[in-house]
Amino acid sequence: MILSEIRSALNQLELIPSKGLGQNFLHDQNIARWFTQQLSIEQGDYVVEIGPGLGAISEFLLQSEAKITLIERDRRLANFLETRFAGKDVTIICEDATRFDTRQLFGKGRVKVIGNLPYSVSTPLLEKFTNALSPACMLVLGLQRELADRLAAQPRTKEYGAMSVCLQRAWNIKIIKRLPSSVYYPAPKVESAIVRLTPKTQSELIPCEIEFFEQLVRRGFSERRKQLRKLIDSSSFSWKDAAERIGFSETARAEELSVEQWIALVNLYRPPPDIQAQNASELFDVVDENDQVLSSEPRGTVHVNNLRHRAVHILIFNQAGELFLQKRTIWKDKNPGKWDSSTAGHVDAGESYLEAAVREIREELGVEIAQETLKPVLKLPSSPEIGFEFIQIYRTVYEGPFTFASAEVETGAFFSLSQIRQWLRAMPDDFTPVFKICGEKALG
Ligand code: SAM
To answer: Relative to the CA of 184, which ligand 1 atom is closest?
Structure first.
């Protein structure tokens, strides 16, 4: 949209741009087109635009092959967009984007997020669309320049802070353009920048306990000028050794540690579990083709020799009939980062299916559930497709909340069954192979 079109649209709507809603409208066509190109849209992409305003960016998005959803808080602008894009394949939601439920985006395709964000809510919007319950695989955002500088900041700069470290743990962040305020109408007082965020790949991510990482980083930056050793408790290890091992000065302040050094520090406080050692110590009952116990063998022997053994999958529903799915952490040896049943696990030697189910719920989700509330749904016979396991599936009703075992579960949420069915059809590789089978059989 060019400036005269913006002016006339605002006149027609009798809309005086609101500072509180960050209503500064982009009137440079070349930048709007360029902005959109940065999403590298391909077929199968699902693009969400936050704060489309009068549609300066949306009009270019609509020339692409992606499915488009626009979330605009101002009812007058949402109505304007309905008229402007009538007949086009676009979903317009009139809602405060900070309240948007990102769960609904799972299963829609490769989700990409774009927007010239309203400044007052940029930070909560960033948090919402970059947390584990957002499937976004790319964000291209217009932000206030200072905020952009903070997101992409490097250690030992005044911009580098808790937000830089927490976001850079999981995202690659790049400022791709700086914009003068003159490209907007009305021109804001501050300059802007366009930032691209892409998630780190599994091989780039360094495992650590995320919640604790964020707590420690925030504590470290709570008084920037203070030495870290005076801010965070190191009674459980020697600070001097830690500094030497991780490679920072004993008197370092928070801003001197790189993201990798922060992760190393967190892993000193909460060492990551030795999954291999844990697995090596596990014993399973080996069973025959009728699920009768033959012997007990170590986990490794069972898996290497494809011996029949036992497992449970538990489907936890809430009162609304939604099913809780968990996302496995990247630490898991099998299917890291995949979505799975509410909880699942092997039956240990000497344990019954029911006992294993209760234990898995306790260990992975931090909840004590009585055996009698678990109802058998079906039992899958052992087969090569499901790793030679007999799988007993149970269901139960529980509303949460859950306390995730941080080494096992990255996140989790309740989803409607219709969404899960559609998600399974559209993006089966998001799920563990067993859930693909359990899910299809148990959900119908
Ligand atoms: N994308 C348009 C452009 O580039 O010309 C408008 C960008 S303007 C900086 C921000 C837009 O976000 C406005 O249309 C404003 O009404 C909208 N907005 C403000 N707060 C919002 C919120 N919480 N949720 C969704 N939209 C919001």
So the answer is: 5
Torsion angle in degrees (nearest 10) through CA of 261, 332, 303, 392: 160
Q: CA 39, CA 137: separation in Å to the nearest integer?
A: 10
Task: Give, using CA atoms, the residue closest to atom 12 of ligand 1.
Answer: 51
Q: What is the Å distance from ligand 1's center to 74 Cα?
A: 8
Write the residue with the smallest CA distance to atom 19 of ligand 1: 21
- The reply to whether omega before 401 is within 30° of 0 (cis) is yes
Q: How far apart are CA 354 and CA 144, in angstroms?
A: 55
Average pLDDT (245-271) is 95
pLDDT in tens, 161-180: 999 999 999 999 999 999 99
- What is the 154 CA–ligand 1 centroid distance (Å)? 29
CA dist 227 and 7 (Å) reads 53
- Per cent of the chain over pLDDT 90 is 89
pLDDT digits (tens, 9 = 90+) for 408-438: 999 999 999 999 999 999 999 999 999 998 8
First to last CA, the chain: 48
Cβ(139)–Cβ(113) below 8 Å: yes
Query: Mean pLDDT for the chain?
Result: 94
pLDDT higher than threshold 80 for residue 280: no
Specify which residues 143 forms β-bridges with: 193
Helix spans in 222-257 (H):
228-231, 239-246
Nearby residues of 112 by Cβ (< 8 Å), 6 or more positions away: 39, 41, 45, 46, 47, 48, 66, 136, 137, 138, 139, 140
Buried b or exposed e, range 214-228, using 16+ CB within 10 angstroms: eebbeebbeeeeebb
64: left (phi over 0), alpha (psi -120 to 50) or beta: beta
Length of the chain: 444
Stated pTM of the model: 0.94
57 lines ligand 1 (CB under 6 A): yes
Any ligand 1 atom below 6 A from CB of 51: yes
Distances (CA, A) of 246 to 183, 241, 329, 354: 45, 8, 24, 45
Strand 283-287, strand 293-298: pairing: antiparallel
Asked if pLDDT for residue 311 goes beyond 80, the answer is yes
- In short, whether 21's Cβ falls inside 6 Å of ligand 1 is yes
Contact 308, 287 (CB under 8 A): yes
Does 25 contact ligand 1 (Cβ within 6 A)? yes
